[in-house]
Amino acid sequence: MMTVRKEFDSGLEKLHQLIIEMGNFVENALAESMEALKTTDVERAKAVIAKDPSLNQMEEKITELGSKLIATQQPVAKDLRRILASFKIASDLERMGDLAVDVAKVVLRLDGQELIKPLIDLPRMAEIVQQMTYESIQSFIQENVDLAYKMSKDDDQVDALYGQITRELYSLMMENPRNITQSSLLSFVGRYLERFGDHATNIGESVVYLVTGSRPDLNV
Amino acid sequence: MNTTLIDIKKLNLFYVNFQALKDVSLTIPNKAITAFIGPSGCGKSTLLRTLNRMNDMIPGTRIEGEILIDGKDIYANEVEVESLRRKVGMVFQQPNPFPKSIYDNVAYGPRLHGITDKKKLDEIVETSLKSAALWNEVKDFLKKSALGLSGGQQQRLCIARAIAVNPDILLMDEATSALDPISTLKIEELAQELKTKYTIVMVTHNMHQAARVSDQTVFFLNGEVVEFAETESLFSNPTDQRTEDYITGRFG
C-alpha cells in the first residue's frame, strides 16, 4: 500500500522551488553585474547590490523550512539528504549572490572611467560560470549525476581562463603603472568569477550526495 | 561486528496454509541490539517468537529450516522448551506483571528453577531490579503489589523478571508501544545498558526507535528479509528501494 505524506511532500516541493528560484536569481545577478561592468554602468551595478537582500531572505526561508521539516517529520534516508543538500546548495547560492555583488562593487569603484582594454576573457568566463550555474540547478532538478560531474570539467576551463586573465593583467601593469588600479580591480573580477564556478561545482557535489549518499570532491 | 549468537538458516514458517516466513536467513550478533521493522503482517513478530519457540503453542504451525543459538539447533528433538525460554527471555507489548508483590515477580523465575535460599533470592531481586533501572524507585516497598506500579515501571519490572533467570537473549516485542514517551526513553536507555550483558532482539513499529536504539536493523516485507544492515547505513542510505519507501513513510 502506498501512502502519501502530503504535508511533508509539499514542504519538500517548496524547498525545491526555493532552490530553483535562488538559482535563477544568481544567474541573473551575475549577468547584470557583468553587463554593468562591460558598460561601466554604475546605476545598473547599484541595482544588483540593492536586490541582494532578497536572495539572503530566500536562503533564510530554506533554513527555516528545512529545520521545521526535520523537527516535525523526522526525515531519514533520501528525504533527509534532500533537506541537508538544500541547506548546502542554498548557502552556495547565497555566496554566489555575494560574488555577483562584489563584481557590481568593482563597477562602482571604476566610477564610469573608460576601461584600459576591451573585456573579452572575463565575459567568456562569466558565460561559462553562468552556464555552470544553470546546469548545476538542472542537475538538482533532474537528480542527474552525470551533469553534476560535468561541473568539474567546466571548472577546469574556468581555472584556465582565470590564469590567462591574470597573466594578461600583470603584463598590462608592468607596461604602465597607471594601469595598476584598474588591472587589479579586473583581476579581482576574475577571482570572483573563479570562486563563482567553485560554488557551482559544490552544488554538483551536493547533487551527487543527494542521489548516491556519498560526497565526491569535484573541485580538484 | 560481534560474533554470531543466533544463526537462522533458510527458515520457512507456515500457519496451516499461510506462509508467514519465506526463506529467512539471518545472523544475529552477540551482545548487540538487532531491530526487526516492517509493516503489519510482514512476519517480524512471527520470527521473533520462533526464537524462543512461542509459536509452538499455535496449532497448525509448521517450520522448515534451522535456528541455531550458540551453535545448537533449538528445534532439535532433545531441546527442552523450558530451558530454552530460560536462556531466551521475552518482554511483551503490554506489561504483564503477575498479581503478586514486586519481589515475588522478580523471584518467580529463580524459584521455579529451584533457588530457595532467601539470601540468594534477595540478591537476585536486587541486582535484577538494579539492572532494569527500577531498584531506586521500588526498593522501599518490595512487598507491595506490582499492579500498583505505573505502566513504565511495570514494563521495567517485566524486564527485571526476564533477566532474573540470567538469560543470554532478551526478546522485546513492541515493548514500549504501550508506554508514554518518558517511559519509552527510559526503556531505550536501559536497552543500551543491557546490551553489554545480553543480546537483544526487538520488534518495533516505531522506525525511529529502531534508528535510535539498535545496532543492526532488519527490514521485512511479506515474510521475507528485504534488507539487513548496520542501522546507521540502513537509515541513511538503504540499498533496496522498498526499504527506502518504507522508512521514508511512503509505503506500508
TrEMBL record, chain B:
Domain (ABC transporter): residue spans on this chain: 3-247
EC number(s) stated in the UniProt entry for this protein: 3.6.3.27
GO molecular function: ATP binding; ATP hydrolysis activity; phosphate transmembrane transporter activity
One biological process term in Gene Ontology: phosphate ion transmembrane transport
Subcellular localization, as worded in the UniProt entry: Cell inner membrane
Pfam families according to UniProt: ABC_tran
Keyword ATP-binding assigned: yes
UniProt entry keywords in alphabetical sequence: ATP-binding, Cell membrane, Hydrolase, Membrane, Nucleotide-binding, Phosphate transport, Translocase, Transport
Highest taxon in the source lineage: Bacteria
GO (cellular component) term, any one: plasma membrane
Biological role stated in the UniProt entry: Part of the ABC transporter complex PstSACB involved in phosphate import. Responsible for energy coupling to the transport system.
Protein name as it appears in the record: Phosphate ABC transporter ATP-binding protein
Provenance organism: Paenibacillus nanensis
Gene name of this polypeptide: pstB
